[in-house]
TrEMBL record:
This is Phospholipase D Z. Residues 1-27 form the signal peptide. It comes from Rhynchospora pubera. It comes from the Eukaryota. Residues 162-189 form the PLD phosphodiesterase domain. GO terms for molecular function: catalytic activity. Keywords: Signal. The lineage of its organism: Eukaryota, Viridiplantae, Streptophyta, Embryophyta, Tracheophyta. InterPro entries: Diverse_PLD-related, PLD-like_dom, PLipase_D/transphosphatidylase. The keyword DNA repair does not apply.
Length: 340
């Protein structure tokens, strides 16, 4: 994942996990399909796209290209447009030919696909972190400028948790097609950095759950965090921390009603309990890019962080990782793609 070096303590992460596979021998009507998606740096002839795996640049253009009604994006930062002529940009000074060789065109194509979707009057919602020097959220602002169908908000999680950023990279198109992965809205994330994600097509149930989460982030961005946060002493980490007022870190009787939905009362524990039974989707997911040909019913779930946004319903990212590792059978292999 491409991101700045000052890695904050809490990232707003989001992952998608398959729990297990139950061969049922029939195909679900929803016809939800999944492909792995990757980015491979250009100029690495020995590192080819894995057969059956799609490229990030294509998938992002398809999501925008196929959108007829809505497009929801969570974005850490924007740099789809390279800046070889901008002396403040890391791209400065590279020739036109060099930029082409680096694959900068793909970023421009993805940005163009967003503009085209905006021009088709697709409702675009962007939830972003504050972005990076030198252009910060300019690309989103340009997209929104003069268009009532494009809404761009900057959500500063620092105001809610004392630290942290919107870190998830999610695209949801027409409430059914989805990208979840590591690629930023950065041309380098398409052609200069190794990235991994999943492309889900026709997956309405999963999209609905994602929208629910995104809607909550949207609400969060509209609230005055001063009114909805408290500073607590976290005895596990032996540190004072700012948390939302509905956090489990606050004694139950002092907790506020979460202004986000759904609100569920949970017993007070110091920190958060492991969720053994996250809300799961029992849907058949076809994987046309893989050899596995039999249709199967899969239990899957979405995981999120931080815990104040799980509502005892979604799984936490941390637990999702642990379960994925533990799900590997004896003598099996777990492959982990990580940044640091
Ligand atoms: C829509 O998505 C499919 C793959 O899911 C892709 O083949 C097609 O080119 C996309 N259409 C547009 C207009 O982007
Ligand atoms: C940079 O400047 C050159 C020369 O003026 C121009 O041909 C090129 O299109 C510019 N590139 C970008 C990305 O703006
Ligand atoms: C959203 O875009 C508009 C129009 O360009 C801009 O005025 C506004 O500052 C942007 N908002 C954020 C939060 O970036
Ligand atoms: C947020 O609430 C605080 C305290 O209630 C108030 O002082 C501040 O002006 C509010 N900020 C905004 C942007 O409304």
């Amino acid at each position: 994942m491409a991101l700045p070096h000052s890695s904050p303590f809490f990232h707003l992460l989001l992952a998608f996990f398959f729990l297990w596979h139950l061969p049922l021998g029939f195909s679900d009507q929803s016809n939800c399909q999944a492909w792995l998606v990757q980015s491979i740096p250009t100029d690495m002839p020995d590192l080819q796209l894995v057969p059956g795996v799609l490229s990030t640049g294509d998938v992002l253009q398809w999501l925008a290209g196929n959108a007829t009604k809505s497009l929801d994006l969570t974005v850490q930062y924007w740099e789809l447009l390279a800046g070889p002529n901008d002396s403040n940009s890391g791209d400065y000074g590279y020739s036109e030919a060099k930029m082409k060789k680096f694959g900068a065109d793909v970023g421009r194509e993805v940005y163009k696909s967003l503009i085209n979707a905006a021009d088709r009057n697709v409702d675009i919602r962007i939830i972003q972190h504050s972005g990076l020097y030198p252009n910060y959220v300019q690309e989103a602002s340009d997209l929104a400028a003069g268009r009532t169908n494009v809404k761009n908000i900057t959500l500063l999680l620092k105001n809610w948790w004392g630290t942290g950023i919107v870190y998830s990279k999610v695209w949801v198109s027409d409430n059914k097609d989805i990208y979840i992965g590591s690629a930023n809205n950065d041309w380098k994330s398409l052609t200069q950095v190794k990235e991994l994600g999943i492309y889900l097509v026709g997956c309405t149930k999963i999209a609905r759950s994602l929208r629910h989460y995104i809607n909550n982030l949207w609400i969060l961005s509209t609230l005055n965090s001063t009114d909805y946060t408290r500073t607590i002493f976290d005895s596990q980490w032996q540190a004072s921390r700012k948390v939302p007022c509905w956090s489990n870190f606050i004694p139950k009787e002092e907790r506020c009603r979460p202004p986000l939905h759904p609100a569920r009362h949970v017993p007070h524990v110091n920190g958060y309990p492991i969720i053994e039974d996250p809300a799961t989707f029992d849907i058949s997911i076809e994987t046309p890019g893989m050899d596995a040909s039999t249709a199967s019913s899969d239990l899957s779930y979405l995981s999120f962080s931080p815990p104040e946004l799980l509502f005892h319903n979604f799984q936490s990212d941390e637990q999702g990782w642990i379960e994925t590792i533990k799900s590997v059978e004896n003598g099996g292999t777990v492959r982990i793609s990580t940044m640091d």
